[in-house]
Each structure stands twice: as C-alpha cells, then as structure tokens.
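To whoever picks this up:

The nightly regression suite flagged FSD2 protein as changed. Nothing in the input moved, so I suspect the structure step. Input below, exactly as stored in the fixture:
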Amino acid sequence: RLKEFLKKEVDLELSTLPDFEERVIDFSEAEKLMNSINAIPAPCAPVINPQAPNAATGTSLRVCWGLFSDDTVESYQLCYKPVSNERCSDEQAEHTLKVKETHCTITNLLPNTQYEFWVSALNASGISPPSERAVYVTAPSPPTIKSKRIRSCENAALVCWESGDINPVDSYMVEL
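Regenerated output under the current build:
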C-alpha cells in the first residue's frame, strides 16, 4: 500500500490564500490594558500625629506623620498656617513644603503661636487626600525680669517679670 501511495502525485495546493502574513496586528488596546495593570494607585491620606512633648522651641516645631497602608510614596506635601481669629490676615498665609521623610522641623515661626498643619502623600499616580488637621503650638518666649522691681530680705525675695507673648502663658517655672 505504501508503494502504491508513493507512486501517486499528491496535489498540495491550498484552497485559501495565506494572506495572514501581510496583516498588521493592532496591540494598542492590549498595551493600554497592560499599562493600567502596572500603574500604582494614588496613596491614601496620611495620619498626622499630635504634638509630642519637647517638639517645640520659641521659633520651631517638629511635625510627624505616618501611613496606615503600604502605599508607594515618593514625597509628602506639608502645609501649615498660623491659627488666627481674624478672617483675612497677611500672617495667615498658607505655606507648603515638599518633604521626603515622615517628619519635618519648621523654623522661623512666632513664639507662643498656634499653627495648623496637614499633610498629603504623592507618587507617580497622583496626590492623596489631605490628612486631618492638627494644631501645634510654639513655646513661649522667655519673660523679661524687671530688675528695678526686685525686692529681697533675709528669708524672701520678690521677683517680677513681664511676658512679651501675645497669647496667655499657662505657667512659669522659677529657678533659684
């Protein structure tokens, strides 16, 4: 049988043309889909910490925050402004800083002044919603002793001072 088969002429001509070799396949939709899969989402809102003890001087504050998620973050945007009862004030201008870490020390602030802080996280996909706002207070400036009003006797001394602070000071510590 094999000998008989090999003696026959076999027609291998295809009934359809092989034009698939000339086609250009459009992968743009697939490429868009792949790019959307590889994109990282915008981060969640950071959580700003309340003011820590000893985190303030008369002219500076150390502000800290964190994330409750494993978001990819490239930097943070820290915003702050002085807290004021006045509606429109030049001193109430909003300041913005770009920060790489989850903490920042802000300098050149006014003594015994409240500042409102909030922070957002940024990555290649966008910016997070802002954190809740937190109020921090700078330390009061040192009082000025009124040397002309000092009085003393054998068992006591009277020392008077004056505070240069606009806001009231909670307490003073007198050291002998």
